[in-house]
Amino acid sequence: MKKILLIIGLISLGIIYKVNFTNSSSKEKSKIRIAIFSWSNSKGYIENIQSFKGSLEKYGLVNNKNIIFKEYLSNTSRKKQNELAIEARSWKPNLIYSLTTPGTLIVKEHFKSIPIVFSIVTYPVEAKIIHSLKNSTNNLVGTRNYVSAETQIKLLLKIKPKTKLVGFVRRDIESNSNIQFKDFKKNLLKRGIEIFDIKAKNLNSLKYQLSNISKKMDVLYSACDTLLQSGGEELVIEHSLSNNILPFSCNKRGVRDGSLFGIVVDLSTIGSLSGEKAAKIILEKLTPSELVSESTSKVNIILNFRTLKKLKLTISNEVLSNVSEVIY
Questions:
Q1: Could you tell me which Pfam families the record lists for this protein (predicted)?
Q2: I want to staple 136 with a disulfide (CB 3.0 to 4.6 A). Which of 23, 75, 127, 130 is the partner?
Q3: 99 and 41 inside one domain
Q4: Residue 250's domain spans which residues?
Q5: What does the pLDDT read at residue 18?
Q6: Taking 70 as the threshold, does the pLDDT of residue 26 lie above it?
Q7: Average pLDDT in the 226-241 region?
């Protein structure tokens, strides 16, 4: 009799476990699944993703309540990004959030119909991620961290008017910085300023390139690409300050770390904008091509006072009046 009761008890527990597991699985399936491809764990990228999630929450889309996130980190490896995209397909996400140009180009190839919202993509049209900012004509829409080369160069010349040679530091074969390099080259040459291309595949390659520069640079510019945003800019700053070269940047973190100045787009702000687009896709059933890809109209001039003193430079009151933040 005891054996019979024990068997009945075990069967009951099994049924309860199965019911609970089934209910839990069913609840998870009913939530909107968002796959996040962060490309790198840089601080700016992390802040961007936090703002993206925060924006969704403002629209009532709350993690583990009616949506669920799954994050994929490739650490800037194209091979790993491809593998993660294949892995993500089996999870069957309802929406993709992708950071950076190289990361988004890879994700785009794996998800042809699922909505993809991107961010931290400087040239989405030129990189062939979308057809135009007003109408992507595909399943992508997003935000970009764009400040024109002309705007950045004008500020540079107010700070260092006798600039003759600018070293442009970038990742080799990254479409984003290739486009940016051409934009800078055109705008510098029309002002009679020479540009020197310093391109590297990884951090070790960049360190070697910097230590073997044959020309005397007035300025070293860190491009808006993933190599510089993932440790490369620290090498540029170290080399610049050791050789009395003015370092300037398009990344806020770069100025915090020692670049003299930068006209930057706040990555948190565009993360929030991307979250708004994702919310409209989810809640209003809009397609990405019905939304506009954009950047924030607000840009910030960040100045590093320690670097200013080290390089023994002076800044005009006109420039100082437009500075948004000073790093001491």
A1: ABC_sub_bind
A2: 130
A3: yes
A4: 149-264+299-327
A5: 44
A6: no
A7: 94
Read off the pLDDT of residues 104-126 as tens digits, 9 standing for 90 and up: 999 999 999 999 999 999 999 99
Burial 213-244 (b: 16+ CB within 10 A, else e): eeeebbbbbbbbbbbbbbebbbbbbebbbeee
Examine the domain organization and report whether 155 and 286 are in the same domain.
no
Model pLDDT, residue 226: 86
Residue 107 maps to a domain = yes
The answer to whether residues 173 and 253 belong to one domain is: yes
Q: Are residues 171 and 307 in the same domain?
A: yes
In a domain, 207, yes or no: yes
**Are residue 218 and residue 272 in the same domain, yes or no?**
no
Task: State residue 15's pLDDT score.
Answer: 47
The whole-model pTM stands at 0.83
Assess whether 198 and 315 both reside in one domain.
yes
What confidence score (pLDDT) does residue 176 get? Answer: 84
15 found inside a domain: no
For residue 318, is pLDDT > 90?
A: yes
Please report which residue ranges of 161-266 form alpha helices under DSSP H. 175-189, 203-211, 226-227, 233-242, 252-257
CA dist., res. 267 & res. 163, Å (int): 29
Phi and psi torsions of 234, nearest 5°: -60, -40
- Which of 189, 188, 175 has the alpha carbon at shortest distance from 248? 188
Report the pLDDT averaged over residues 129-134.
97
Find out whether 265 and 299 touch, Cβ atoms under 8 Å: yes
In angstroms and rounded to an integer, the radius of gyration of the C-alpha atoms of the chain is 24
- Please provide the DSSP assignment of 109-131 as one string: HH-SSS-EEEES-S-TTTTTSSS
**How far does CA 170 lie from the centroid of its chain?**
15
